[in-house]
Amino acid sequence: MRYRSVMAPSPLDRVRAICTALPGVTERPSHGEAAWFAANGRQFASFADRHHDDRSAVWCAAAPGAQEQLMEADPGRFFRPPYVGVRGWLGIWLDGRKTDWGRTALLLGEAHEIVSARRGRDA
C-alpha cells in the first residue's frame, strides 16, 4: 500500500492564493520578497520571510488608525513593520500562534481596496 504525504500549504502559498484571487492583482519580487500589486501598479502587500527576525509575516496597507488599533488589541499577532510601518502599514505574523487565515484574507482584501482606490503612483 502506498501512502501519499499531504503537506499543508506554506504561509507564502496561502498569502499568494489570497492575493492573486483579488481582481487585477499581479505578483512580482520587491526587495527580495514576493509582493502583490493592484491594477494601478501600487503595492498593497509583501511577504516577509524572516526579515529582521526569525518569523514569517505579511505586511499590508491598512486603513488610517487600523495599525494602532490592531496592534493594541492583539500584539502577539499584529505589529508595525519596518520601513512601511510609518505609513500605516500593518504587519501580520504568520507563525507562532495559530494564524487566523480568514481575518488575514479580510485584511489583505481591505489593503487591496485601499490601494486600488488611489490613482497611479502619484497618490
Describe this structure in words.
This protein is α+β, with helices and mostly antiparallel strands and 123 residues long. The chain has one domain: Alpha-Beta Complex (Aspartate Aminotransferase, domain 1), CATH 3.90.1150.30. The protein is built from three helices and six strands. It has a six-stranded antiparallel sheet. Helix 1 crosses helix 3. The radius of gyration is 15 Å and the shape is globular. The model has no long low-confidence stretch (mean pLDDT 89).
Feature tags:
single chain, 123 residues, alpha+beta, Aspartate Aminotransferase, domain 1, 3 helices, 6 strands, 23% strand, globular
Outline:
The chain is of the alpha+beta class. It is built from 3 helices and 6 strands, in the order αββββαββα.
Query: What is the C-alpha radius of gyration, as a whole number of Å?
Result: 15 Å
How much of the sequence is in beta strands? 15-25%
CATH level 3 topology? Aspartate Aminotransferase, domain 1
Instruction: Trace the largest sheet across and list its strands.
Output: 1-2-3-4-6-5
End-to-end separation in angstroms reads 59 Å
The oligomeric state is single chain
Helix segment tally: 3
Largest β-sheet summary: 6 strands, antiparallel
Helix content: 25-40%
Mean pLDDT: 89
Poorly predicted regions: none
Overall structural class, as computed from helix and strand content, comes to alpha+beta
The CATH architecture would be: Alpha-Beta Complex
Number of domains: 1
CATH class (first level) name: Alpha Beta
Overall shape: it is globular
Summarize the helix and strand pattern as letters.
Answer: HEEEEHEEH
